[in-house]
Design a protein that fits this description.
The complex is a heterodimer. Chain A is mainly beta. Helix content of chain A is 0%, strand content 60%. Chain B is mainly beta. Classes of the chains: A mainly beta, B mainly beta.
């Protein structure tokens, strides 16, 4: 079964608005998380990783991690049409750091 | 710039056919991965490798073989393709502490 669950499945946000994506793990072995973004016709590309509880900000993107609840979120402020993409949350299995487990993805659409 | 190149970009084969998907990375990365992407399932790991000659079984390995011939080259083999293997396949590479670098994908249709 999926050990990394993402919500919502899809999200539509007006241009300039705030997009919030969520990810929950069912495995306490997951110690840190990655966010990946995939534009149509391309492979996924790493956006950012988060290792510590709290917020991590990179430009318009802010990730928030709560290890106790195994919840990580991604917030995109001032959303742009170029942010329209499929977003994946991923976590490495603690006992096997080479293997990333991906969520099922959130499709984000930014409406002009 | 780090690069992962997959070939072919698109492939159509018949049920029972033999297919090889190729992946080459020029990143000097040790780890290489094969994933399949299907709507509603995200990316699922098929096989992966820690280096030339090494193979590890992923989460959805049935019907697939893989071979890592060199540090750069990782192949995915479907010896008796089935329609359930119709999917978008991605290869990726990384070092021990880096993020994944993905290729552009191979779209496979089994008819």
């Amino acid at each position: 079964q999926q050990k990394v669950q993402q919500s919502p499945e899809s999200l539509s946000v007006p241009e300039g608005g705030m997009a919030s994506l969520n990810c929950t793990s069912s495995d306490h072995n997951f110690q840190y998380f990655w966010w990946y973004r995939q534009h149509s016709g391309e492979g996924p590309k790493a956006l950012m990783s988060i290792f510590s509880d709290g917020d991590k900000k990179e430009g318009r993107f802010t990730a928030h991690l709560n290890k106790a609840s195994l919840h990580v979120s991604l917030h995109i402020r001032d959303s742009q049409p170029s942010d329209s993409a499929l977003y994946f949350c991923a976590a490495p299995m603690n006992y096997n750091q080479g293997k990333l487990i991906f969520g099922q993805g959130t499709k984000l659409s930014i409406k002009p | 710039e780090a690069a992962v190149t997959q070939s072919p970009r698109n492939k159509v084969t018949v049920t029972g056919g033999n297919v090889t998907l190729s992946c080459r990375q020029t990143n000097s990365h040790n780890y290489m991965y094969w994933y399949r992407q299907d709507t509603g399932h995200g990316l699922r790991l098929i096989h992966y490798s820690y280096g030339a000659g090494n193979l590890q079984i992923g989460d959805v390995p049935d019907g697939y073989k893989a071979t890592r011939t060199t540090q750069e080259d990782f192949f995915l083999l479907l010896e008796l393709a089935s329609p359930s293997q119709t999917s978008l396949y991605f290869c990726a590479s990384r070092t021990a502490n880096s993020d994944y670098t993905f290729g552009s994908g191979t779209r496979l249709l089994v008819i």
